[in-house]
Amino acid sequence: MLNLPNFLTLIRIVAIPFFLVLLSSRLYLEALVVFIVGGLTDALDGAVARMTDQQTALGAYLDPLADKLLVMSSFVMLGLIGGIPPWLVVLVVSRDIIILFGYGMIYLLVEERLEIHPSLIGKLNTLLQLVTIGVAVVLLYDVEFLNPRLDDYLILATALTTVISGFQYLYRGLVWLQNRAPPLTRSS
Length: 188
Hints:
Layout: H1 4-24, H2 28-51, H3 57-80, H4 86-110, H5 120-141, H6 148-180
């Protein structure tokens, strides 16, 4: 049975294609509304799950998946339409692919599921990535609404936390793997 928090997460996942179509159609205000609704469901699903004690294994997988799908697809689309610099798109998408590939390889090597607990820098990075998406859409809609220098600082902060959190996750995964991988044996 699907509970309310997981339903809210599914709404966020379903909203992603609508957001992307609106962006690509240059309907920036409408895209911003869909993005904000998605952000509200993100805040709401976790709060409702904790308050009603409805945290599930499905929710533990769906919520970060929804965040990754939103962030990666939004960065790619914003890069394509000139909302954010292409180098930042490559950085953000590469980091997530490396992390997903790395954790998948760990599972194959030791046949054990690695619990991924977001770090403070990882959470800050996700927040900055989402804020960067929102600010980029606002600037596409109305350049005079915000100071464009804010976007420059936000892009630098997002890039910095993307790199730092990426190395942190990589380090944590390698340490975890080293502690669980079977030792190599030498044949005489």
